[in-house]
User: What shape does this take?
Amino acid sequence: MRFVHTADWQIGMKAVHLGETAETARRARFQSARRIIEIAKEQRADFVLLAGDTFEHHGIERAKVREIANLLATAHCPVYIIPGNHDPAGSGSVWEDECWARSVHVRVLLAAEAVEAPGATLYPCPALSRTSAADPTAWIAGQTAGGIRIGIAHGSVSGHPDMEDCFPIPSDAACRLGLDYLAVGHYHSTAFYPGADGAARMAYCGTHEPTGFQERDSGNLLVVEIAGPGAPPVIQKLRTRVLDWHGAVHPIRGSADLAKLNEELEAISSPEQTLVQCTISGTADGIDEEAVERIRELVESRFLYGRFECGELRIEGNADEWIDALPPGYLQETARKLRADARAEPPDEVAAGALAEFRRMWREVRA
Ligand SMILES: [Mn+2]
Assistant: This one.
C-alpha cells in the first residue's frame, strides 16, 4: 500500500514582501499542487493525504477554492483532506463551499472518527479552531481497528525549537497510538521522527512550495509505502517546488570569502526560478567596496527576486587604498583631510558623508 503525504499548500498566501514577484510565487503554489496530482499518478498511489492548511485563510476568493477542488478531483485516486489551523472547520469556512461535495474522490474529513481508505484505516485529527493547547491525536488512543493504521494531523511537535505550541503533538505519538504512520502538517520543512526501532512512523512532509527564506528543506512531498501492519514505512522524499528560495547570512572575513560567495551565486542553475536573499556580515580585512557592489549587482540582476544586505559588514584594513591612488595634489589632500576629520574624536559626520560621496564620484569618473 502506497500513498502521498502533502500539506501546507497555503493557497491565498499574499507574499507581499516579495513585491512584484509575489504574483509569480502565488502562481507557483498552484503549479506545484498540479505536480503533486501528477506524481501521485506516476507513483500509483492508493490515495493522497493533505494534512491541513490547504488554504492560508477563509477570506480567499471562492473561485480559487473551486480551482483547488477541481484540481484535486482530477486525481486518479481518493484525496483525503483535514482542515489545519489556517483553515479550520466551522461556520464560514472554505469547507462549506458546495464544490467539496461534487467529487466522490475528494473527501474533507471534518470529524475525528475512523475512515476506511484503500488498504488502510485513517484516523483524521481535523482542526476545529485557529489554535489549541490540546493534543489533536489523543482521541486515537481508544481506537483498536486492525489493518494498516494511519493518522493524519496538523500541529506543532511538542518541544520543537522552531515552533510555538499549536495543537501540540508528542514526538512519539505514532508509536504510542499504535499507528503505522502519522502524517503531520504545519511545519514547512520536511522532518522525520524515528521511533526506538529507527523507523520513521511520524513525519512532516513540509509545504509543497517554499513560503520563506529561513526554511531548511521545503518544497517536497513524501511517498510512503507500507507492506503491512507493523512493517516500517519506506519513505521517499520527492521535490515538488517550482521556485527555489535561497536565504543565507554569509560571514565575510576577506576577499576570498567574497569570491567564494560570488562563485556560489553564479553556480545557481535556474536563476529565473530562484529567489535570493543574501546578507553579508562580519569584519572583513582589506576588501574592496567595489567587490561588495559587484555582488549586490549580481544578486539584484541575476535572479527572479534578489535582495542584498550588507549593512552589518565592517570593512577594515586597506579600504583607503583609493585615496593613495588619487592624483597627488588637492584631490588627494582633500580626501586625506576628510578622512582625518571623519576619524577624529568625536567623528565629523559631515566629513564622513563627504568622503563617501567623494569616493562614489571618483569611482564614477574613473569607470
Ligand atoms: Mn499550520
In short: Residues 246-366 form one domain. The chain has two domains: 2-239, 246-366.
